[in-house]
Amino acid sequence: MTKLNMTKKRWEAIKNNDKNENDVFIYAVKSTMIFCKPSCKARLPKKENVTLYNDFQDAINLGYRPCKKCNPMGKHTEEEEWCIQIKNYINKYYFEELNLEKITKSCHGS
Ligand SMILES: [Zn+2]
To answer: How far does residue 68's CA lie from ligand 1's centre (Å)?
Structure first.
């Protein structure tokens, strides 16, 4: 089980419904026993009730239920998949010279 530390950045991501952090962690809320993606637009929980995990399975094992609003176990939309693909590509070739052409070529899209 990997419990993640609540950092300022992660709390900001929850507060700002930051989609970019959706692949990084989910947050579980003790008071409601529900877990969410950072981008969830549900009411902001109290910080002291929030625990972060990098895998939703951890939250499930602890008895948390997935939020109906943000569907944290749901498959990514096609658009999100594409963003993940691009992000992975950039991470992988970080040290090489990158340009839009190279990225679009390898990720099939302009
Ligand atoms: Zn949610």
So the answer is: 6
In the chain, where the domains are located: 3-66, 78-107
Tokens of 74: 């749901």
Per residue in 69-101, pLDDT (tens digit) is 998 987 666 777 788 888 999 999 888 888 888
Distance, in Å, from the CA atom of 96 to the CA atom of 10, rounded to the nearest integer, reads 29
CATH topology of domain 3-66: DNA Methylphosphotriester Repair Domain (3.40.10)
Residue 18 in contact with residue 38, Cβ under 8 Å?
Answer: yes
Residue type present at position 11:
W
The string of pLDDT tens digits covering residues 10-69 is 999 999 999 999 989 999 999 999 999 999 999 999 999 999 999 899 999 999 999 989
Residues lining ion ligand 1 (Cβ < 5 A) are: 36, 40, 42, 67, 69-70
Q: Which two tokens stand for residue 26?
A: 């989910």
